[in-house]
Amino acid sequence: SVKPDPMASISVFEGTTVAVQGIFYLFNALLNILYVPSKAFKTFNQPPPQSRKRVVVVGASFAGLWCQRNLCEEFDLTVVDYKKYFEYTPGILRVFVDLPHLRKITGPIPSSRSKFICGEALGIDPDDKLLRVKLENGKTRNVPFDFLLIGTGSTYSGSIRASKSESTLSSREATWERECKKLKEARSVLIIGGGPVGVELAGEILTR
């Protein structure tokens, strides 16, 4: 009987990872292409800044930044997130074995076309339309809105997603330095779960 080649499976999943990342970069490039003409052909009917509706977006991940890019011309837009950088979560598993890869999948949150508040969303006052935010300095601020969009994403165990204590990229890098060191010094690794994440992580470890 022919024995299955585990390395072939790993290659398939590595190819899948590269393909997913490629799709993300193409999607981002397409948004840039569409955004430039939309600015060039703005009409004079655009409402003045003082009369624009206030949109607050909680979460600066895929959904949040997509809203920022597409709504900032017509609305007074504010993005709220507890970290100051964007992180491409689908590519994070490679950082377990390749720390410099973190710099390739992270970047600053754009703030030239909208306002950005670094803080943790604590609660909503629906009557007065206020979002209560805990700022970096520990103080609380009420952010008024006409429309509130919540795009905080999913939660994960371990270091796959940044915690509230990792608001800066340097603090995030410090966490991953510890994770990489633990994995490098480990004599054995147990991965529970054979889904896409588990298999991809196994492939990253075996090929390094």
Portion in strands: 15-25%
Q: How does the helix and strand content classify structurally?
A: alpha/beta
CA distance, first residue to last residue: 30 Å
- Main β-sheet description: 6 strands, mixed
Number of domains: 1
The CATH topology is: FAD/NAD(P)-binding domain
Portion of residues in helices? 25-40%
Name the shape in a single word: elongated
CATH architecture: 3-Layer(bba) Sandwich
Backbone CA Rg:
21 Å
The named CATH superfamily: FAD/NAD(P)-binding domain
Low-confidence segments: 6-17, 34-38, 40-44
GO cellular component, one term: cytoplasm
Domain FAD/NAD(P)-binding: 54-204
Protein name: FAD/NAD(P)-binding domain-containing protein
Pfam families: Pyr_redox_2
Describe this protein's structure.
It is built from five helices and eight strands. The protein has helices at residues 6-40, 62-71, 101-104, 169-185, 196-206, and strands at residues 54-58, 76-81, 85-87, 106-108, 115-125, 130-135, 140-144, 147-150. The strands form two sheets. Strands 7-6-5-2-1-8 form a six-stranded mixed sheet, covered by helices on one side. The longest helix is centred in the first third of the chain and has 35 residues, at 6-40. The protein is elongated and about 60 Å long. It starts with 5 loop residues before the first helix and ends with a helix.
Descriptive key words:
single chain, 208 residues, alpha/beta, FAD/NAD(P)-binding domain
